[in-house]
Every structure is written in structure tokens, then in C-alpha cells.
Amino acid sequence: MRVIVEADAEGVSRTAARFVAELVRRQPDCVLGLATGSTPLGLYAELIRLHRQEGLDFARVVTFNLDEYVGLAATHPQSYRSFMQRHLFDHVNLDPRHTHVPDGRALDFEAHCGQYERLILEAGGIDLQVLGIGGDGHIAFNEPGSSLGSRTRLKTLAPETIRDNARFFGGEEAVPRLAVTMGVGTILESRRCLLLATGEAKAGAIRDCIEGPVTAQVTASALQLHRDVAAIVDEPAAGLLARREYYRHVEQAQRLLQSGGLRTVGPTIDHE
Ligand code: GLP
């Protein structure tokens, strides 16, 4: 796993936006996997800026969001659909028909989840999946204990997640208990993953995800099995990483290599 440590949250957003923008420019019909939560907000703001100021074109881009709360209508202010509209979709030239968020009010969730998986496949699979991380190390809503082979399905939220998200609902009581979420297996099929984390509160989850054992108790740790993951974290989120200096060293070597200042004996270094 590539680990990029930035000084602050702004640096995380800028670097993440560079990955996304580079893909959108190279492959204008790419498929992006998107995440909600406060962590990717800076990334979305930067993508809106690139769209407005540098003409970054989303006309042919297709998006799939990771998850949605069960029971909330798309128009509910705390639904992930309305979050995405507010923070990205309404401000760039994405075709509304190309944006997908699971339906929290589906009549038949089993059928809906199966269809979501099929739509991803029909779109050609996800080229780049943006991920945040929960305080308990979850990705999307794959709470501790989720199968590392899981697919899109209903999931019961963990008490810690309900507590973490209570701030958006004005109290724990109002937080939905269930969500529709892509599975860990679904996420691992993306061609590339960008894991973003900022702030000291994520330091434990980031340590467990990057340097801990691969375990269903920390579903983000499954990313260690993926061949193309970049974890982009700020200093506070990197605070508990034992190999922090080594990751920095690798990034310096990468930069030198790219600028032609370093020769290697093999064809590539540290891409995976
Ligand atoms: C929720 C979302 C996750 C997100 C997590 C962290 O659980 N389902 O996709 O990564 O919150 O959110 P935040 O970025 O606000 O810390």
C-alpha cells in the first residue's frame, strides 16, 4: 500500500483531487466510486474549483456512491444522496443519469442490492474508489465483523458509528440503524482505491488498517490485499504509524524517480 503523509487536511484534499483529476483527464468516461462523511469534503471542493477554473469535465464520468441510510428519502437533508448533491453533483457538469447512490427507501432491498452490483459491472467496474474510514476502522458501512468477501447488502450500524454520526442528526436517537452498503468484496474489485483520513481521532483506525493484521474486525485492513491503494493521510491521522519515516522516504524516492534523478535496477518501485 502506498502511504502519503501530508502536513494537513488541505494537503490531503489537494493530493486526492490530483489523483481524481488526472484520471478524469486521461479517461473522460471513467467510473468513480464516491464516499460521504466530512473527510472527502475538501476533495469535492477542490474538484468543483478545478471544474470551474480549469474546465475539468465530468460530462461523461459515471459515479457510484458507497452507501445510504435505510429509511431516508433521497430528499432528506441527511441522506447521502442529498449530501452528494449539495457538496458535488450540483456544482459540476455530471449527467444526473450517471450518478448512482443506493436507494434507502427501496421496496425490495435484496433486489436493489443485486441491481446495484449489476449496474457497477455494466458500467465496466469502478476505476477509482474514494474511501474514508470510520473510527472503528470500517469502510463504507462495513462494520467490524463484515465478511471481507461481502457484496452490496443491508448492514446494521455499530453503536460507535451511531454515536459518531449523531452530530448530523441532532442526537443518537434520530440516526438510522441500518444502511445499504457496498461490500468489502465490491470495494476490493475497484481498480484503484484512495483512502483518506484526517485528524487525530482516526490515528488508531489508520494504524490498524495499514500496519495491523488483515481482519474482518477492521474492514479497512482488507485494503492490504488490493494491489493499488494510496492512503492519503494528514500528520495527526498518521500519528500512530510505526513506519511513518519509511513511507516518507518512499515518497521522496518516487519523486526523484519521476524527475529522472534516481536509477533503479527493476522496472518499477513501490507501486503496490
Ligand atoms: C460513515 C460513512 C463512511 C465514512 C465514515 C467516516 O460511516 N459511511 O463512508 O468513511 O462515516 O466519516 P467522516 O469522514 O465524517 O469521519
Commentary on this structure:
- The protein is of the alpha/beta class and 272 residues long.
- Helices cover 35% and strands 15% of the residues.
- It has eight helices and ten strands.
- The strands form two sheets. The protein has a seven-stranded parallel β-sheet, with helices on both faces. A three-stranded antiparallel β-sheet has the order 4-8-7.
- The longest helix is centred in the first third of the chain and has 18 residues, at 9-26.
- The radius of gyration is 18 Å and the shape is globular.
- The chain starts with a strand and ends in a 14-residue tail after the last helix.
- The mean pLDDT is 95.
Helix content class: 25-40%
Count of DSSP H/I helices? 8
Bound compounds, each kind once, are: 2-amino-2-deoxy-6-O-phosphono-alpha-D-glucopyranose
Tell me what portion of residues adopts beta-strand conformation: 15-25%
Spell the H/E element sequence: EHEHEEHEHEEHEHEHEH
Strand order of the largest sheet: 1-10-9-6-2-3-5
Mean pLDDT: 95
Shape: globular
User: What does the main sheet amount to?
Assistant: 7 strands, parallel
**Which stretches are poorly predicted, pLDDT < 50 over at least 5 residues?**
none
Q: SS-based structural class?
A: alpha/beta
The radius of gyration over CA amounts to 18 Å
Measured distance between first and last alpha carbons: 5 Å
Q: Count the strands?
A: 10
